[in-house]
Specification:
By secondary structure, this protein is of the alpha/beta class. It has 3 domains: 89 residues, Orthogonal Bundle (Arc Repressor Mutant, subunit A); 102 residues, Periplasmic binding protein-like II (D-Maltodextrin-Binding Protein, domain 2); 101 residues, D-Maltodextrin-Binding Protein, domain 2, CATH 3.40.190.290. It has 10 helices and 13 strands.
């Protein structure tokens, strides 16, 4: 008996119970009144008892019908909620976004972008993880993240790479440093300076070393780190001065630490990456649009 009851018959019964009339149920299901009546009649035959008594032109639910409806109603309520969730996801009103980013952007640019992104999406949740570029690329390729923010150059299969606007490098130093009074500083003035530089595996470090070499400048490198945030924190602790992007430096700028532009053109090249091939998560594309807007605001 259980297999002989079809969903269309159950839906007709549920609609009549919910609306109260065959006419209303037919409109709700976009079918004719006779179709509703036939579905109810077939259901009654299958289950072996009457669901409605006709009193004049009205249908009155039997106690058995009331008992059956009490079992069915929560299921349809769940389906209604699922339909609402599906609608919200399609219109970016709910869902989840997984973002992997470089540590250098995790304390200024990315939080501002997330705040902007969530301002009109209160039901959306965001997971953020900070990782090195190669690990981000591998995890985005494996679809463990919906979008990643990485340093270029980068080579990794199964990802789509979209460059961001270049980030200018700036000098971060204690406020009482001998160069802090200048509005713009040349790398030529850093000869012999105690410096904290990014690790030599970084493309940004390659550019810095190349610029020093061309200018015949020899800084006193007292510390190396792969993490721009560690470099800035070390400046605040008095270890030395450093060259990083302004997005890495911003959280550390206080009355005791200042940031100054440099005369030479040195840039960090970054990009957003998506899993490829396959359709991108719409939330991820919107997040990247907000990210680009935040970058332009600071340009």
């Amino acid at each position: 008996m259980r297999n002989s009851v079809n969903l269309r018959q159950i839906e007709a019964f549920y609609s009549v119970m919910r609306i109260g009339t065959v006419v209303g149920a037919a409109k709700m299901m976009s079918v004719t009144q006779p179709a509703i009546s036939r579905a109810i009649a077939h259901l009654e035959i299958r289950i072996g008892y009457k669901l409605f008594e006709r009193t004049g032109r009205k249908l009155v639910a039997t106690p058995e019908a009331q008992a059956l409806y009490s079992e069915i109603e929560p299921i349809y309520g769940s389906l209604d909620r699922i339909a609402q969730v599906a609608y919200d996801i399609g219109h970016q009103r709910s869902g989840a976004l997984r973002v992997a980013t470089l540590p250098a952007m995790s304390q200024s640019l990315i939080p501002r972008t997330i705040a902007r992104f969530l301002a009109t999406r209160p039901q959306v949740t965001v997971l953020v993880q900070t990782l090195p570029s190669r690990q981000i690329a591998a995890m985005v390729a494996g679809k463990q993240f919906d979008v990643g923010v990485v340093e270029l150059p980068l080579s990794q299969p199964s990802i789509s790479i979209e460059p961001l606007e270049p980030f200018e490098l700036a000098l971060v130093m204690p406020a009482d440093h001998r160069l802090a009074s200048k509005r713009r500083i040349s790398l030529k003035e850093l000869d012999g300076e105690r410096m904290i530089l990014l690790s030599q595996q970084s493309y940004m470090r390659y550019q810095i070393d190349d610029a020093f070499s061309i200018l015949n400048v020899f800084p006193n490198v007292v510390m190396e780190t792969p993490n721009s945030l560690v470099a800035c924190a070390s400046v605040a602790a008095g270890v030395g001065i450093t060259l990083v992007t302004r997005f890495a430096a911003e959280p550390f700028i206080t009355s005791n630490v200042v940031m100054r532009p440099i005369a030479e053109e040195l840039h960090s090249r970054s990009a957003v990456i998506f899993p490829y091939p396959g359709k991108r998560l719409s939330l991820a594309e919107t997040f990247v649009a907000d990210l680009r807007d935040e970058i332009r605001k600071k340009s």
